[in-house]
Specification:
This protein is mainly beta and about 375 residues long. Helices cover about 5% and strands about 35% of the residues. Strands 11, 12, 15, 16, 18, 19, 20, 21 and 25 form a nine-stranded mixed sheet that branches. Strands 10, 13, 14, 17, 22, 23, 24 and 26 form an eight-stranded antiparallel sheet that branches. The two termini are about 35 Å apart.
């Protein structure tokens, strides 16, 4: 196992350079029905002519002008009841009451005749209702905590998450190349044509023409429109990075080709460090760190081999200023006590090379998500 790990160093370096009505305004009830005469004016005259035997011919009527008031009401179809006129004869005064129903609409005031002058017209009160809309985030795999033992004390403040579920690559965050299209990385020519996002997630393919796929969040790669992302731990503020990925399988059941999920600092390499969270080496899943000035064994970096089981797994790393702890499928698989505190960016790739497992073409590594907490 030791002999296998020595030759891996630097393989991932690759950095070439309503309204309300006032109740007081309502009209009072009508008088008893017995006082009403709803017949025609002819009926009114007949009622008066009963005195002809004493007074002779019917005297002309004199009508007093009632009070006219404009009434408005804020609610359509409101019924207003009014008393209209008084008929006076010299010897006898007869009060004839006519009931008039008026439908009042708020758009236009209606003239109504009212005998009760003491009843104030209705008033309109306008009430403004303020509506507050609260948006509740939809639960998704962006939420939650790292897939790690609680005893590890991993941070839970999510600072970056990509579920690769929008149908296209977010090129503000990721560049689908290594400093540019058709660049060489880990013995493989990387092509943006081998990078896609579909219903399964981020697809990185080793194609039949021996080209591979890579995405990087390097903010210093000079790619147009790419701002990228990098991060570093500080005392009391560790970083936790987690990927969920499906590794390609070889015919013999091991991990095929050279898939990798890793972090790396800016040049010069390896002085600013490298953390290989998972790379398929010789058909197995392995982890490593790289550091130092490149002149000693530190550049090769310590690490370990975990298993040779392809398929879907979570691969995480707890990164502090004094140690790096690797977590596969929720279990700690190894810790390296080393101080790596330079900012690093995220890389995901699928390569073909001497250090990988059995070559299978075409073969795809699918990344379902990558998340970062601090």
């Amino acid at each position: 196992m030791t002999a296998l790990l020595v030759g891996f160093g630097g393989q991932h370096s690759g950095s070439p350079s309503g309204q309300a009505l006032d109740p007081a305004a309502k009209l009072g009830p009508l008088s008893a029905p017995a006082t009403l005469n709803t017949g025609s004016d002819r009926a009114v005259q007949d009622s008066v002519s009963g005195s002809r035997g004493r007074a002779g011919a019917v005297q002309p009527l004199r009508v007093t002008a009632p009070t006219t008031t404009v009434v408005t009401h804020p609610t359509p179809t409101t019924t207003v009841t009014t008393v209209t006129r008084t008929i006076v004869k010299p010897a006898t005064t007869t009060i004839v009451t006519t009931v008039t129903t008026v439908t009042v609409h708020p758009a236009a005031p209606v003239a109504a005749i009212i005998t009760h002058a003491t009843t104030p017209p209705p008033t309109t009160t306008t009430t403004t209702v303020r509506t507050t809309t609260t948006t509740t985030p939809t639960a998704s795999s962006n939420a939650g905590v790292p897939d790690a033992p609680a005893s590890l004390g991993a941070p839970t403040n999510l600072v970056l998450a990509d579920n690769f579920d929008t149908g296209s690559l977010n090129t503000t965050l990721w560049s689908p190349s290594w400093y540019g299209n058709t660049e060489q990385q880990n013995q493989t020519t990387m092509s943006s044509a081998n990078v896609s996002v579909d219903a399964n997630g981020l697809e990185l393919t080793d194609a039949a023409n021996d080209t591979g796929g890579i995405v990087s969040s390097n903010p210093n790669d000079s790619q147009p429109g790419h701002t990228g992302f990098q991060i570093a731990p500080s005392p009391g503020k560790p970083v936790y990075v987690e990927y969920r990925a499906t590794l390609p399988a070889a015919a013999n059941g091991s991990v095929s080709n050279w898939p990798a999920l890793w972090l790396v600092g800016q040049s010069p390499w390896p002085e600013n460090g490298e953390i290989d969270v998972m790379e398929g080496l010789g058909g197995s899943e392995a982890y490593h760190i790289h550091f130092g000035d490149g002149s000693g064994s530190g550049a090769d970096g310590p690490g370990g081999v975990v298993s040779s089981v392809p398929g879907t797994h979570t691969f995480g790393v707890m990164w502090t200023t004094t140690s790096v702890t690797f977590v596969y499928d929720g279990a700690v698989v190894g810790t390296e006590n080393e101080s790596l505190d330079s900012p690093m960016f995220i890389v995901m790739e699928n390569s073909i090379g001497d250090y990988g497992g059995p070559t299978t073409l075409p073969a795809t590594m699918t990344v379902r998500y990558v998340k970062v907490w601090q």
